[in-house]
């Protein structure tokens, strides 16, 4: 006789495990199924967490090499890559085990294996020995995340031609690395290996990096990364990538038809991700997909099948861990008869390069397209006391507010701690705050957050320190 659950979550990533915990908190008998063998999904295992570990460690290595410029004399700085990778793996293990503890603490049944639909209410779970077990579910939430996309006809071997997964596990620093795609992931991983000594080249099809981001911020980021030694080849299309004895050969063509070839040890293909829905048997139970193979849902995350829901990377919207988490909580509350809701206008995005980039709400380009009249307030970290005192003053804060009502419509930051500073603006936007509200809030001195206050003051042309 198979186990019966009121709710079953397929996928134990940030959306899935958070959803399962919330369902259990709300009194539903809940199970969570994860195929990876460890919880936390792409984010904890081969995404956000290991990449942030390497970004931090590579930045520490880079800083240590230049400490003598600041009056701190040390001996020769050496890289021990294998120790650095062990440190990264340790962080991943601690966090994934922590999630397992949270499921246990919240009385969520955890099944290791690949989940798929036998019917709308029956889930098959196959473990790594291909042994099958069945469970019954009144409600099912699909939270299986996404997988990296390659270029047509090019397969990842995760040694020479790598996705972000392989880029996190290289056993030596490449002499030359080509990154195909100038988005968040490509720039973060390119930054890591550049700081550790690789000659990094970014090949991007568009005329700017970080597509969808405010153009002014995007241009500033590229300028700073160029200064750090990363080469950019914009408006170049990759024609072929072929492995050879020493690595890979890449043939590209630019917008004017000029051909350019690259030889490199490693090529990182970072051109996006796609929903991970293969093997779920969605067709068998009639769950509808859209033209991008994402699961179609209504505003309550319900599919066209009454008892089946979907959240996170498998549905429309930005593929971000925190977006999936919020959807997980919202769908759990909806299933329990409450009123779960996600405000998609206040989901921040962060690029963890040095300096960090953070964005929330509308960009200038979007406001122009929507014909919304707006005011701009900007403040440079060059005029921020804390940033200057610690010699970390690249970048600026930019706040966009409605011309008539002064309501904050968006904010875009490039600079140290941008990923933390954006949260203040997120709270302000959730409460419908004006730039005046931020400007009249007392900020501690000396802090980076004062740049947010000054940018808010600047909306009305009354910044004090610039």
What is the topology?
Blueprint: E1 3-10, H1 14-25, E2 30-34, H2 41-46, H3 48-65, H4 81-105, E3 109-112, E4 114-119, E5 122-126, E6 132-142, E7 146-148, E8 161-162, H5 164-167, E9 176-180, H6 184-195, E10 199-204, H7 215-227, E11 231-234, E12 236-244, E13 247-254, E14 259-264, E15 266-269, E16 273-275, H8 282-285, E17 308-310, H9 321-335, E18 349-351, E19 356-361, H10 364-369, E20 374-380, H11 385-389, E21 396-402, E22 408-415, H12 418-430, H13 435-439, H14 450-459
Parallel strand pairs: 1-2, 1-6, 2-3, 6-17, 8-15, 9-10, 9-15, 10-11
Antiparallel strand pairs: 4-5, 5-6, 7-16, 12-13, 13-14, 18-19, 19-22, 20-21, 21-22
Helix pairs in contact: 1-9, 3-4, 3-6
Put the structure in a nutshell.
The chain is α/β, with parallel strands linked by helices and 466 residues long.
Average pLDDT for all residues: 97
**Total count of domains:** 3
User: What's the helical proportion of residues?
Assistant: 25-40%
CATH third-level topology of the largest domain: FAD/NAD(P)-binding domain
CATH architecture of the largest domain: 3-Layer(bba) Sandwich
The largest β sheet comes out as: 7 strands, mixed
Find the count of extended strands (DSSP E, 2+ residues).
Answer: 22
* Anisotropy-based shape: globular
CATH superfamily of the largest domain: FAD/NAD(P)-binding domain
- Strand content is 25-35%
Structure classification? alpha/beta
Would you state the CATH class of the largest domain? Alpha Beta
Report the radius of gyration as a whole number of Å.
Answer: 24 Å
User: What's the tally of helices?
Assistant: 14
